[in-house]
Design a protein that fits this description.
Keywords: Methyltransferase, Transferase. This is N-methyltransferase. One of its GO terms (molecular function) is methyltransferase activity. By secondary structure, the chain is α/β, with parallel strands linked by helices. It contains 6 helices and 11 strands. The protein folds into 2 domains: about 180 residues, 3-Layer(aba) Sandwich (Rossmann fold), CATH 3.40.50.150; about 60 residues, N-terminal domain of TfIIb (Single Sheet), CATH 2.20.25. Helix 5 crosses helix 6.
């Protein structure tokens, strides 16, 4: 996917770190609401550019796993004190356990039930008994809404007052009948400091599963889960909080 590969260094303008403070505070609250023991070391799977980590690292010792080298580089610059490792959330095995595991919207790239179960199995494998996971997809089947949005930011100016800028359209289509994913088209317009402009099209597939499917898969991999609906900027989200069975 171009957004996480050749365009990775544009990520701070696609999704600015300042936009994550409110939701990161909510994830911290959810972790603490379910914790019955120490909550010091936390693994994040699919950590991307490290935006959530930048707000959570003051509360936890974080280990960040992300498959994209470009996104890891962005995160390393933002979070140099965190351990960064390559890995696919379906298959990565670190050989150690954590007090908590966090998975943000990268879980949406699991487009089949088999992939989703594999990712949740990875969560379970890396949790100590009694450990807590917070998994926060952008949508379940019940909360999914098709639509479009236009966003983007201007970067900081250099000494000559020139800055890079980015704007993008995100167009989310409803899942086709019988499909477990939606197609999301990104149209990005990138303006360099010299004023040159180019456009890039990028298509992504986001898994969309029912709440019952999520809860069943958590149970199958040894995690006792509950659904935590929440609202962010007026939009409903379904978040899952689960504890590793002892």
């Amino acid at each position: 996917m171009k957004l996480y590969e050749e365009l990775a260094d544009w990520w701070p303008l696609v999704s600015p770190v300042s936009h994550y403070r409110e939701e990161s505070d909510e994830y911290l609250r959810l972790f603490r609401s379910a914790a019955s023991g120490p909550l010091k070391e936390v693994l994040e799977l699919g950590s991307g550019g490290g935006n959530n980590a930048s707000h959570l690292k003051s509360a936890f010792k974080l280990t960040l796993v992300e498959p994209s080298e470009g996104m890891r580089k962005v995160s390393c610059e933002l979070n140099p004190e965190c351990e960064h490792l390559p890995g696919d959330m379906r298959t990565v095995r670190l050989g150690r356990t954590f007090d908590g595991v966090f998975v943000h919207d990268a879980i949406e790239y699991m487009t089949t039930e088999e992939d989703l179960r594999a990712a949740l199995e990875t969560v379970s494998v890396h949790l100590r008994p009694g450990g807590v996971t917070v998994v926060a997809p952008d949508a379940t089947r019940e909360s999914f809404e098709p639509g479009s949005a236009v966003e983007g930011e201007d970067g900081p100016p250099d000494a000559d007052g020139r800055a890079r800028s980015l704007r993008y359209l995100m167009w989310t289509l409803p899942p086709e009948p019988g499909k477990s994913y939606s197609v999301v088209h990104y149209s990005l317009v990138l303006r360099e400091k010299d004023g040159s402009v180019r456009s890039v099209l990028d298509t992504h597939h986001y898994g969309v599963f029912s709440r019952d499917t999520w809860l069943r898969l958590f149970q199958e991999v040894g995690l006792d889960a509950r659904l935590e609906p929440r609202t962010l900027e007026g939009h409903p989200y379904d978040t899952f909080v689960a504890v590793k069975r002892r």
